[in-house]
Specification:
151 residues, alpha/beta, Nucleotidyltransferase, domain 5, 5 strands
């Protein structure tokens, strides 16, 4: 399982992502790792993407990954065929303009190569424990960057 959330204080502004990777080994033991990072000048959508990218980039062998996020931007790219259409149109939207955050979408596609994956949207700030934890990680990373920039 890959849980992820992104946050920005302003859009653009200081932002961060939070990611939880959870897997069960062959002995039935559950392992979990958390990742977060802040950026001084970013957007919420970029942080939503970065959280998922980080999770996939941490994988060291082909896996089945179920991604859970409150980002409709990320989920709909896969469940509604946006990504396939962008790729077919040479990374252009239906308006023929270049896709926003193209370098992050391409990085995500590369990171997902070799893995099987599904995406699930959950409502944000609705009590989903892992989504709430990812939100705290993301907000904390954004706040840390914001404070560092004041000093």
């Amino acid at each position: 399982m890959l849980f992820s959330d992104g946050s920005s204080r302003g859009n653009p502004g200081p932002g961060g992502y939070g990611t939880i990777l959870r897997f069960t080994d062959s002995k039935g033991e559950v392992h979990e790792r958390e990742y977060s990072e802040g950026f001084p000048d970013t957007t919420n959508n970029r942080m939503e993407l970065m959280g998922v990218i980080r999770g996939f980039e941490e994988l060291t062998r082909p896996c089945r990954v179920h991604v859970v996020t409150d980002s409709q931007y990320v989920v709909k790219a896969f469940t509604e065929g946006w990504l396939e259409n962008w790729i077919a149109r040479d990374w252009r939207g239906s308006d023929r303009k270049p896709v926003k955050n193209i370098e992050l979408w391409q990085r995500l596609v590369n990171a997902m190569d070799g893995h099987e994956y599904t995406f699930e949207w959950v409502k944000g700030h609705a009590g989903h424990p892992e989504n709430e934890r990812c939100d705290r990680l993301a907000a904390g990373a954004a706040d840390k960057v914001s404070i560092q920039n004041m000093v």
